[in-house]
Amino acid sequence: MRIAIVDYNMGNLRSVKNAFDKLGADAIVENDAEKIKEYDKLLLPGVGAFGDAMEHLEKSGMREALLEFAKSGRYMLGICLGMQLLFQKSYEFGEHPGLGLIEGEVVPFDKSKFPHRLKVPHMGWNELFAKSSPLFQGLPEAFYLYFVHSYHTVCPEDVAVGKSFYGYEFVSAVQRDNIFGLQPHPEKSHNVGLKILQNFVEL
């Protein structure tokens, strides 16, 4: 079982790689788009701006490689910005098309709905209320994970497998067939995060 951690110059890859190493998983940081098809599973990390990320994916050839991988039916997990890239579009610093693997769009937190004490970005530990998904096998219905983000996804209910609350309810985990996404960072979420990554390895 070989897992590609996609390197497209957008994210802290070391912490993701370290998490898989703790699990004894064969995860490799991969920046060659031609080699993506050789892997069994794929993890798409990401920290930064949506538009910049899509530009890097396009220029590196990774965009087409990711779309082909998704079509193959093999499992793919997006984390934080990597989850947002799975959607059709984002309104971060303009309007930008995404990979379009999951229906929906990425929008900023609506601060008009916030109590005064809340700030953006949403940063720190928060609860995720989970629906049935193989990613959450062996976990309770609610658990805490570590978040850092200023935008969130809006998507159909049948895609949302996890929700959280920050000022208002938002989608924090998604699944469409073989494609999974997590807004929080499992690699920064101690034992619960490792359990989620272990579940991904065992799919």
Count of structural domains: 1
Portion in helices: 10-25%
Helical run tally: 5
Question: What is the CATH homology-level superfamily?
Answer: Class I glutamine amidotransferase (GATase) domain
What fraction of residues sit in β-strands? 35-45%
Class inferred from helices and paired strands: alpha/beta
User: Number of DSSP strands?
Assistant: 13
As a whole number of angstroms, the C-alpha radius of gyration is 16 Å
Widest beta sheet: strand line-up: 2-1-3-4-13-12-11-8-9
Mean pLDDT, to the nearest integer, reads: 96
The stretches of 5 or more residues where confidence is low (pLDDT under 50) are: none
The first-level CATH class is given as: Alpha Beta
CATH architecture: 3-Layer(aba) Sandwich
Biggest sheet overview: 9 strands, mixed
User: Which series of helices and strands comes N to C?
Assistant: EHEEHHEHEEEEEEEEEH
Q: Remind me, CATH topology?
A: Rossmann fold
- Shape annotation: globular
Distance between the termini: 10 Å
Q: Which features would summarize this protein structure in a list?
A:
single chain, alpha/beta, nine-stranded mixed sheet, four-stranded mixed sheet, 24% helix, 203 residues, Rossmann fold, globular
